[in-house]
Design goal:
The structure is a single chain. The chain is of the alpha/beta class. Helices cover about 40% and strands about 15% of the residues. The protein has 14 helices and 17 strands. The strands form 3 sheets. An 8-stranded mixed β-sheet has the order 3-2-1-4-7-8-9-10, with helices on both faces. Strands 13-12-11-14-15-16-17 form a 7-stranded mixed β-sheet. Strands 5-6 form a two-stranded antiparallel ribbon. About 45% of the residues are buried. The mean pLDDT is about 95.
Length: about 450
């Protein structure tokens, strides 16, 4: 097959490489000329994706992957088009479709009646977007009819950056079409370009699952992510109560989860990334009466300020003039990405409390941290307060030599060893405060 992948970001590029590794000719398109040039040179434009540095140059050198900026031209040569363009949101997580609208217009200009192109959107969307936004836009701007001249399907990406190739094998590929023929073609397409692991824990065979409609596929992605947000919020609620009552919530969660019907997640300082903070809001955009979802999102958004409040209390009620470092700019360990990271709210809360704030992250240079408006911190410099925000592996063995003078530590991810900080007040988000003696 000839395949176009629209959007060569942290999901789109690994997808394009996966399709090419399955033996198909792929054109990847992106509006960023630097990304296009790097891909054509066989160089990954972003670090951290497992196996991409090995797979990308191979498929490029074999002539199976080519990148360009002209999406309409690529679409005109392709039987299948997969759109993985970001859906941006505002501060209230209301969808901003401008980039996706522009990409859709480019796709429409490239559609050809004689090819009966299969168009698949993988970007997570509010329910109804495929049918009510993309179909009329594609039809109007191409002059073609969906279900006859081209076919439209939604199939959500379900992978995490850093392990895309692994997740593509492990998780069923969900899809829903606007027509039966479109869904059947999409199923056949994914069965050719993806390879699945055997999953004996699933009631159905791992592979491509047709959910019967685009709306069901759209909702499935929102539901699985919203579940995680609600579950984390519940864990955070338990954690706040447990800490106020001298209970170790992690012991409680371990005990509760020993019963097979309990799957409580872990509390923490923040919920970040492109998915969990956003997709519940996209669900709320369709279902504004979902009070449980709204309350969970509000709970999780409070956690950075709550965590700083723990530090304020441990410091005697004030951080005025204290040197405070936030450990971790990334939204999760091992991933160089700050999308909706808890670092922003944590820095703001520390500043509001009067602290002199700096930020450290092993994945970012000092200049990159300064570009966010933060003072970079170097481990080994004196500090009064430390807030661990991201669970980078390199943080697990931190001790007083890395944070000389520290008197208050708030471990927002429960990865530090409290015995490494003798004499400091050591707190874990979700547990009662603990002073560690020499």
């Amino acid at each position: 097959m000839n395949i176009t992948v629209v959007g060569l970001g942290k999901i789109g590029l690994p997808l394009a490489v996966q399709f090419a590794r399955s033996g198909h000719m792929v054109i990847g398109t992106d509006i960023d000329e630097t990304v296009v040039d790097l891909v054509n040179a066989g160089k990954e434009p972003f670090p951290g994706e497992a196996h991409l540095a090995d797979y990308l140059p191979r498929v490029v050198s074999e002539g199976l992957l080519l990148a360009q900026t002209d999406t309409a031209d690529a679409v005109s040569k392709s039987e299948v088009v997969v759109v993985v363009v970001p859906l941006f949101v505002d501060k209230q997580a209301r969808p901003d479709f401008r980039w996706m609208d522009a990409a859709t217009s480019d796709v429409a200009r490239g559609l050809r009646r004689e090819q009966a192109t299969l168009v698949i959107y993988e970007t997570t969307l509010p329910v109804g977007t495929t049918r009510n936004r993309w179909k009329p836009r594609l039809e109007q701007e191409s002059g073609l009819t969906e279900g006859r001249d081209f076919h439209l399907v939604f199939s959500p990406e379900r992978v995490l950056t850093g392990r895309v190739f692994e997740d593509l094998r492990r998780y069923p590929k969900l899809l829903g079409g606007l027509s039966r023929e479109g869904a059947q073609r999409a199923q056949g397409f994914y069965e050719q370009v993806l390879q699945f692991e055997d999953r004996r824990d699933l009631e159905r065979r791992n592979g491509v699952w047709d959910l019967g409609s685009a709306e069901a596929a759209e909702m499935a992605k929102l539901a699985e992510t919203t579940y995680r947000d609600v579950n984390i919020a519940l864990a955070n609620q338990f954690g706040v109560f447990a800490a106020n009552n001298g209970i170790d919530v992690y012991q409680v969660i371990e005990a509760s989860n020993s019963q097979p019907f309990s799957h409580i997640h872990r509390p923490g300082i923040a919920v970040g990334g492109h998915c969990i903070p956003i997709y519940p809001r996209l669900y709320l955009w369709n279902d504004p009466d979902a009070t449980i979802v709204r309350a969970a999102r509000e709970m999780n958004e409070k956690m950075p300020k709550y965590s700083v409040g723990l530090a304020v209390a441990a410091a005697g009620g004030s951080l005025e003039g204290r040197r405070a470092v936030v450990l971790g700019a990334a939204y999760r360990g091992g991933v160089k990405e700050t999308a909706f990271s808890g670092v922003f709210a944590t820095v703001d809360a520390l500043s509001e409390a009067g602290a002199k704030v700096s930020v450290h992250d092993p994945l970012y240079t000092d200049d990159e941290l300064r570009a966010f408006g933060w003072d970079p911190h170097t481990l080994g410099e004196p500090v009064d307060v430390a807030m661990l925000q991201a669970d980078h592996d390199s943080y697990r063995e931190l001790d007083t030599a890395d944070l000389p003078g520290v008197s208050v530590i708030v471990d927002g991810r429960r990865i530090l060893n409290p015995t490494n900080f003798g004499g400091a007040s050591f707190l874990v988000v979700g547990s009662a405060s603990e002073g560690v003696d020499d």
